[in-house]
Structure prediction request, 622 residues.
Amino acid sequence: MSTNARQMARQLIAQQRFGEARELLLRVCRVTPDDADAWLMLGSIDGRLRDPVGAERCFRRAIKVRAEFPAAHYNLGIALRDQKRFDEAAKVFRLATELKPDYSEAWNALGFALLVLREPVAAADAFRTVCHLAPNSAEAHGNFANACNQLGRLEEAMAAFRKAISLDGRESGYRGNLANVLCNQGRLGEALDEYRRAIALAPRNISLQSNYLLTLHYLPDLDPQWVFEEHRRLAAMHVPADSTVPEHNNDPKPDRRLRVGYVSSDFREHSVAYFFDPLITHHDCFQIETFCYSGVARPDSITTRLEAVTKHWRGICDKSDADLFRMIRSDGIDILVDLSGHTSCHRLAVFARRAAPVQVTYLGYPGTTGLETMDYRLTDEWADPDGMTERYYTEQLWRLPTGFLCYKAPRTAPAPALCPSASSGYITFGSFNNLSKVNDRVIALWSRILQSVPQSRLALKYHSMGDASVRALVFERFRQHNIAEERLELLPPVPTTAGHLECYGRIDIALDPFPYNGTTTTCEALWMGVPVVSLAGAIHAQRVGVSLLSRAGLSDWVADSEQTYLDIAVTLAAAHEERARLRTALRQTLESSSLCDGRRIAAAVEDAYRKMWQEWCKTRTA
Prediction:
């Protein structure tokens, strides 16, 4: 009876007649409650019908009947995972692998559960096992590579991605992820080649396009006009086939309270949050009603803080672009603000559909979105001087008089340390920027500085420095400029923010990279009493250092040429007493400047929003 019924159920399932199959299996389980296979099939149907709680009950009954039942344990893990009970799921997946050591599906599921539980080392081990069990599975090698990448084991990640590509050369994701790894190693030319190959395989993959566009900012010799045209060309991919601008029924009263929505996946321990916090905290609630559309998959203490000061918080991780568009329209948002640009997990496709009457991009990206539907970009006169950069944006530039950034230092920031040269007897220059920003021209100039200051050292800190292959590559790139390995200090990642900031106590002078300047790293260095040398360029990404240093009254450290950059660095190296004074004075200098004045930045942004809104209202009443 049970065998025949199960066979009939399989046929019904193959025909996607799940309801009928479920009724049949329910009868079997009532008649023969010790039929573990029937319970397994019934649970699988509940899972397909998106009832993980019902599925869990069935799989537990199957295990009660037959304790050593690997498939039931595996499927129970899936049901627990679908209920977001990842810790329990991981334990069940592991038990399935103990019962059946060659159970590749269970090992794979275990790996993903461990990643969610933030156990990447164990996850990598699980994925490595899958690679041994299924050596010809491109997916297995790709999963192992992603885990290694998270751990900063870039050489292993690169080899595994290349293996996945050799097994499935048509999967664009492997090439895109390989490009990300190459970027983190500072191998920008190779990264761009891989991005282009990936985009050729998936020409409408927005994530690949955005990674490619972001990488263009790291290269020193690209024509800004060409970079702009690339942004505009690829942004057209975001525009839906039906690109008709929807009707907005927002009340066109110019002075009413405005509903402002912010869209970001970086409302967490992230650079964007450091600069967004002062704005959202100091908004005038009588003038602005705030909405945050958060794509944060793993909330942290900063997420909790931002949610607490926001009137309306919307989680959007599980929302499609169409769902998010409808949510924003339903909320009646007047001004929608993108905080991501072409960075990871952005929602530019929603802006392309014109979700709100007025749309603004701000903070998270150093260039244009390329979207014709993005009305404004918030900036300032230092980063985008009048008449210099307008032609590189589809957006209208709106220059905030107080500066476009406001820094909020972490509460756990330690006190500045003494200059390390006082005890070491030599100057240590340093940069804690993304290694992608340390291109060949940067290395050449920094090498000249080291050669100009006898016995000086250079400390570089970035999360990929924990990988031996990355360190070897950095040593080799400086060796080509006659800088010996012992003059370089390559610092691995530090687990806490306070520990990271303490590392600034190991450097005397910070060197800002170019053409893509640092932002958070510059503010961190100044907060920790370390002077920063920056090179001014011709577009926004090359002028963030100008904005930060000028607003703090430190424009003397901004160079207009590579030679001047070198001269400033050498002069600071010789000014021992001045650097000692700055070690304790810079924090106060920063605190008293507009760079740390949250109320001023909020007032300036609110004034900009009001004027933008009034402009839109004119179009409604004309």
